[in-house]
Amino acid sequence: MRLVEKNRHIPLLGPAVSMIGGIVLMNFCSVAWPLLPLLAAAVVLTFLFFRWPVVQTFFLMIDFLLVGMLIVQRQPPSIVPSQQAEVVVVSEPVEKPKTISVELLLPETGQRVRRYIQKDERSRALQLGHALVLSKIGDGYVSAHDWQLGGGASLRMGYVDRVRLHFLRWRHRLLEHYRQTPMEDDAYAVLAAMTLGDKSALTVELRETYSVTGASHVLALSGLHLGIIYMLVSSIILGRRRFWLSQVIIVLCIWAFAFLTGLSSSIMRSATMITVYVIFSVGGRNRSSVNLLAFAAIVMLLIDPTALFDVGFQLSFMSMLCILLFMPLIECWWPANHRLTKWIRGIVGVSVAAQLGVAPLIAFYFGRFPTYFLLTNFIVVPAVTVILYGTLLVLLIPSLGIWLVEVVRMLNKALGWIAQMPYSSIDGLHPSVLRVCLLYVLLLIVYLIILRLSSAICRSD
Q1: Are 233 and 249 in contact (CB under 8 A)?
Q2: In this predicted model, what pLDDT tens digit does every residue of 103-120 receive, in sequence order?
Q3: In Å, how far are 10, 93, 249, 448, 450 from 454, measured between CA atoms?
Q4: Which of 117, 184, 414, 446 holds its CA 20 to 30 A away from the CA of 64?
Q5: Which of 378-382, 435-439, 451-455 is modeled with the greatest confidence?
Q6: Burial group, residue 104, by CB count within 10 angstroms (0-12, 13-18, 19+)
């Protein structure tokens, strides 16, 4: 292992940060300048200063800053029609005390809106894929007189939306299979969230237990889950003679799972990273993980710049960035040769690095810090691996379902025990935006200092 190579060859990180800066600038400052001519001039200057790398790098950062500003300026306003509209139900209807919560797709614009339909016999019968005609869609609440089944919205859906709906229907059938398996409500809720991305059955108490213990990340499908699936598929597809074919199969499996679970931002980020990694592997190129993360951020923000302000997007990227940056340092300072020692180092390293990355954001958004996150990860990471592998086995051998349910029950009990331990979380933390930014600046300084010290130690590795 060469620590310098793992931490310095990340040329895409700077452009990604510059583009994020442009998006933030445009969202908090109204700039009416003609950005496209400025971008063209900056690109020309970038090429003209090819003999001066420092100046060229400066203009490259300006290029991506302007790209971030431009994609926000060019983004069409999100306008939901206030009058009649034909829509398609694209989420599992969730029953509330007085309403049925559904996500609706407007095929003409591709927008998705959350609406709450008055609960009655008709709304209880709503299913995924139903086409509706709404007389009023502008408000969040839809009365029983303002909607009816029918319309041609499903026929006007785009190809990607059709594929996504097909996978969601398949997920619905798998969820029905879960419901027919004898298990407690909490076990079903965790199993549905952890394997299929359906969090509608999670109770407030269960969410609180996972939040206090620092295990909320296992309920939101992310890189951990896709990484486990990647390793599983890679172990099944053996052989190197047709390496490119095996990698294509792996990518198809990864994206099939992403569509099956609803294409959340964390899943899309992880799937994009794995796809780029596979492409670079087949092409024999450098596969710096931080570069792949930066590339995934650039692609996702070019598609939807508003994703930057999504809490899940921020938590996902910051945790992954800190894992990729700090894990080589941890491996340098904590050498391990035995398999068990490597496993312990991996759990501790990933847990600490991820917590460093998300702690300021968790304090800002949720006002808490889980103190037993390290103990939690020693429990949840093996449990998630067993549950994901076990789910595939249960699909082949249904009789094993009772053992899988028992694993979920044991996980819930263990986290419930940790949540009741003294000082399980520090609450009441509400730092300002400035303090959050200063915390990340401090974290960067600490990282650079440790990197400088580690480079001398690990140079001979």
Answers
A1: yes
A2: 888 887 777 888 888 888
A3: 18, 52, 39, 10, 6
A4: 446
A5: 435-439
A6: buried
